[in-house]
Amino acid sequence: MLILNQLGQEVGDGDSRDDRGNNAIPRKILQYWHDPSDLPDDVRECMASWEKLAAEGFEVFLHDDASAAEYIAERYGQREQTAFARCAHPAMRSDYLRLCFIVAEGGLYVDADDVLVGEDWPSLFNGDRLKLQPLCYDITAGGMMRASDIWNPDMASEGHNFYVNNDPLIAPARHPVLIQALARATEKLLDDDPFPEIQATTGPGNLTIALVAHTKQLQSRGLPLDFEFLKDWGSIAEMRWHLSYRGDERNWRNVYGC
Q1: CB-CB contact of 32 with 61 (8 Å)
Q2: Is the omega angle on the peptide bond into residue 168 within 30 degrees of 0, that is, cis?
Q3: What is the model's pTM?
Q4: Is residue 11 part of a domain?
Q5: In terms of residue numbers, what domain contains 44?
Q6: Which is higher by pLDDT, 251 or 210?
Q7: Distance between CA atoms of 205 and 202, rounded to whole angstroms?
Q8: What CATH number did the domain enclosing 186 receive?
Q9: Is the residue at 124 inside a domain?
Q10: Averaged pLDDT for residues 179-186
């Protein structure tokens, strides 16, 4: 099917028929919590669900504010270091670090509130395509659409705002969509705006715009898509909503009024 993103452009639904590099996406998992001395027990439990994959040959990386700044300083230049320092909220720093990490190394990023529940996780690492989770906001209903309904071929696009999430983020290193998303986030963070909007600057809005621009480039050159949308992420992992930190300023929605 065709998915209309938030800018009204058409983005094709990729498939895996021409996947080429079976080992292109490394078995690396990135997680982030800004302050390891203030990691709530319920969040720790969510993150620990992924640790069992270490026995399957995965490297599991947990970064915090300090180690993320060191990581970016080791692999990027002054612009990226300054951009990260200007991320005012832990959620923004998590957004920015995941782009830096997956661009540099490839692998899988998952949010700290994601719990591994299914056994189909090996499929995430097949092929060499960027894999993203599509989302849709139902403007009429005033809420998020169920993931399964996004794929209904009879659903009208009017009144629906389609975009892609930046959780999970699965890709080989140096994928062009993520390179564009990182460059755009860096540019916006280096602007003079003292209160940049998180979604559009480092979050899903930024990633969606990069995806649309990349798709248009591929289509104009007659090239196949190098990304695909996840249809069954919910069978692999689920987000735990009722966590202790969501009631305070550690939840970006409480700070930015979203």
Answers
A1: no
A2: yes
A3: 0.88
A4: no
A5: 20-256
A6: 210
A7: 8
A8: 3.90.550
A9: yes
A10: 98
